[in-house]
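User: Hi! I'm working on a homework problem where we have to compare a predicted structure to a textbook description. Could you give me the structure for the chain below?
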Amino acid sequence: LVFFNNNTLIVLMELFWWVHFLLLFSFFYIIPRSKHLHLVFAPFNVYWHSMKPKGALLPVDLDREKEQTCGVKTVEDFTWKQLFDAFSCVKCGRCHGRCPSEQSGEFLKPKRINGRLRTYMEENGSLVLRNRSRKTVMSGQTSTVEIGNTEEIVKTDEMVNIDVIATTSEKVAGGMFHYDFIWSCTTCGGCNEACPVAIDHISKIIDMRRNIVSEKVNIPVEIKQVFEGIENCGNPYGKARQDIEYTWAQELKIPTLSEKPDAEYLFFVGCQATFDESARKAAVAFARILQSSGIDFAILGEKEWCCGETVRRMGNELLFQKTVIKNIASLDVLGVKKIVTTCPHCFNTLKNEYPQFGGYYEVIPHSVLLADLLRKGVLETIPEYSKGRLKTEEGPYKNVTYHDPCYLSHFNGFYSEPREILSVVPGLNLVEMPRTKEKSFCCGAGGGRFWTKAKPENPISRNRVQEALVTGADLIITSCPYCNTTLKEETQQRERDKDIITIDIAEFLESYLVTQTDLPDTLKQKTSI
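Assistant: Happy to help. Predicted structure tokens:
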């Protein structure tokens, strides 16, 4: 600088200032036209992320929709936040790394949802805005709408159909996204949890399903059967009410709420435990522990109706809301305040979604209640359990692994409680799978996929079982009837030569608390010392 005089320095200062100024403001031109647009949108997207519980889907105003079509048919039907997501996407692929469908070579690719929506909006944004404004014309209203280059006064007796007054955009389900793409989702929540900018992928997929179901086209046969079963019989199996088996409850002398209306807890058994043998064993074990712990509880018995979780994840919002309203009316008449359940899907729906319709209850998953009983030392003081397996020096199982159910872990944050239960068993070695806790991998049964398992194979459950086998464990423990049944069937089908058992955590805990003669048949041989 000693070689320049003052005038030259002043000129250079102004020159560099303007260069800096132009370079800085050039980003306002470059960023909107590049893949780095998320730098502008992402902070706002995080700020505007939903504060609702993770496991709760937003309800549809069926009165406004006149109980006709709902969900997303065209891009215009997405909410502003769902479209904002598309421009906030970093395209980092973290959602792909956590998506069980994508990781198992199936159709679903979460990142493509935002990518395709953004591309469409960049090419047809003006059309989307015009069509969205036209959809505000309601029944019996007089509104001014733009048609072509003119404005016209429109008065209708019903919702004005956008197909009549505007050029429609591309159909989302079956057009922009293949049906298999939409139905492959397990709704596990891994993609949402992995996203660094708070993008909600699941709501978009559910809204696409809602439109498919409300239009009554391209619905898989297995899903239709589930809808019919719940609507007509109150359970996805379609079993008549008189065929419901509750002899196990009668043998344990468990009262119904009609017989004991002042019971502190309602044990909501759930459809799986009612009709599936594996899930029923878990319910029986849990009920026996509750009885021995002095917990005051009752069940609904034949009056229990499906909570509706399955149909909502499948997109049948109308049937879900009818089911919820029916159940809330029944529960309120019975004066229910506290509910315990062995199914995380029931737990999540009763806890996080029933309040949307006025059903407010204290809902507790069974693994959390069991951990609390152990933490308080209640189980150790039970006389008939004092000589059980929990007190032995050496447990019959050396290596076990635990599978985190998505609706217990990802959506509701219960990771430590099941592991607390396993930690009290002497000589037990818990070997975690490669993907566990916050990064756990789905079993492949969620989002209604459990009911479409008539297909040749479920690559997601196959991958999860393979991860369990890698640990060298001889026992897979979980806290969900769907996970339990799915993983059990997969191990039996593909690993017939492996001496491995899948079991619910309540049944596992009871096998250590009771004497050998009370052990389930599937465990007697395994636990003999």
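For your comparison, note the following. The beta strands are 142-147, 150-155, 265-268, 297-298, 338-341, 362-365, 399-402, 429-430, 475-478, 501-504. The chain has a mean pLDDT of 83. Good luck with the assignment!
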